[in-house]
Write a structure and sequence with these properties.
Rossmann fold, 3 domains, Elongation Factor Tu (Ef-tu), domain 3, Globin-like, six-stranded parallel β-sheet, six-stranded antiparallel β-sheet, alpha/beta, 13 helices
């Protein structure tokens, strides 16, 4: 429990964090990796270079200060980050290192603007928040380990099948090297994949959504090869059938809500991947609730898993499916391979969506922003809009989440 004077000092620092938060966290990461380069084996290097990770941390630190009298307001964010930390192997001993370097970064950037009592208040507050993370993450480690077929840390899975789904997207089917069963997962969850790339001194960990039936005997990840993506390129070019990948147990909070209301799945590009596991779960459900699946991509050449989605939709009367192509080819037009040409907008959504339900969004930040605003313009309750951003929320975060420092 924080003392009243501690709370007052933290509140006093809120304007400073609003103004200098990104500088503090950029300083923090530089300092952290200089002093503890071994932590580069855990953190995503690409997000560091793009500035997304410092911005996400700045949001979280600011949120903690802004909500210091009601920390329960940031529990959804804490839970999301805790899942991510569990999936990459963050341990209790990492927290004192992070805390020390964060406080030094605050002192370095703010200098005489940060009084000694204020710094002490942040030290006390960090200890409380770190204890919350450590406790929650240990619970998640135990849940992952104690579920049937579960494990703690990383486990070797064999690539039993590699399938090219489009010009830039490939699926990898994974089964346990030890022959033991895999645990089920919640539709929408992801696994972390840890790889060691030859000539690279550090290991790299990336999260990939599970894109198949949650009850299957295998896992499947469907990976887009990014132009400058070190890990995705390595997976596409070097990992073949018979290769072994080290992966975490499934994690993540972007999962289906239990409801009888309509479910709307809105995705773009490789954002299709968590939606497909949701779609398969909904197809197998005894409920006949209305399900609407909408996927946007450039054209049929970039459209992954098209036929798989069509098979599901065509064999279940309660599932509606729509494809939106922003740049269809002549062949796409001739064969009527899509339902809407151009970008998804509120005017078109109004013709296919119900007025209520649970809405799930996943895709590039611009797509997320536009769809979120379109849904709001149609009167959809923000609380009914669930979203997943691959990586820290550097480019876009819904307004309500941004106020709480969400780092989804």
């Amino acid at each position: 429990m924080l003392q009243k004077e501690t709370i007052r000092l933290i509140q006093e620092s809120v304007p400073l964090l609003r103004e200098y938060g990104h500088k503090i966290t950029a300083n923090f990461y530089k300092r952290l990796f200089n002093e503890h380069p071994e932590l580069l084996n855990i953190f995503n290097h690409a997000n560091q270079h793009k500035g997304h990770q410092p911005q996400a941390l700045a949001n979280a630190v600011y949120a903690a200060a802004a909500n210091i009298t009601q920390l329960e307001q940031i529990l959804p964010t804490v839970k999301h980050i805790a899942h991510k930390h569990r999936s990459i192997g963050v341990l209790p001993e990492h927290y004192p290192i992070v805390g020390q370097n964060l406080l030094l970064a605050m002192r370095d950037v703010l200098q005489d603007k940060l009084t000694e009592p204020m710094l002490n208040a942040w030290q006390e507050t960090y200890g409380v928040i770190a204890d919350l993370f450590i406790q929650m993450e240990e619970e998640l480690y135990q849940q992952a380990e104690q579920q049937p077929g579960g494990w703690r840390g990383f486990r070797d899975l064999v690539v039993t099948k590699k399938v090219r789904e489009s010009e830039h997207i490939t699926s990898f089917y994974l089964e346990p090297k030890d022959g033991q069963p895999l645990p089920t997962f919640l539709p929408g969850q992801y696994i972390s994949v840890k790889v060691e790339i030859p000539s690279d001194p550090y290991t790299h960990i990336r999260q990939y959504s599970l894109s198949d039936d949650p009850n299957a005997s295998h896992y499947r990840i469907t990976v887009k090869r990014e132009e400058k993506g070190k890990v995705s390129t390595y997976l596409h070019q070097e990992i073949e059938e018979g290769s072994v990948l080290s992966v975490s147990a499934p994690a993540g909070v972007f999962t289906l809500e239990q409801t009888d209301s309509p479910v709307i799945l809105l995705s773009a590009g490789v954002g299709l991947t968590p939606m497909l596991s949701m779609l398969k779960a909904l197809a197998q459900s005894p409920s006949t609730q209305r399900v609407i699946h909408i996927h946007a991509t450039r054209n049929s050449q970039t459209h992954a898993l098209r036929e798989e989605v069509l098979r599901i939709a065509n064999s279940h009367a309660h599932i509606e499916n729509y494809f939106c192509y922003s740049q269809p080819t002549d062949t796409d037009r001739l064969n009527r391979l899509y339902d809407k040409e151009g970008l998804i907008d509120a005017e078109w959504l109004k013709t296919v969506l119900p007025s209520t339900g649970h809405f799930y969004l996943c895709g590039p930040s611009a797509f997320m922003r536009d769809c979120y605003q379109a849904l709001l313009s149609l009167g959809i309750d923000p609380a009914a809009i669930h979203h997943e951003i691959f990586g820290p929320a550097g480019a876009w975060t819904p307004p309500a989440a941004a106020r709480m420092g969400a780092t989804q």
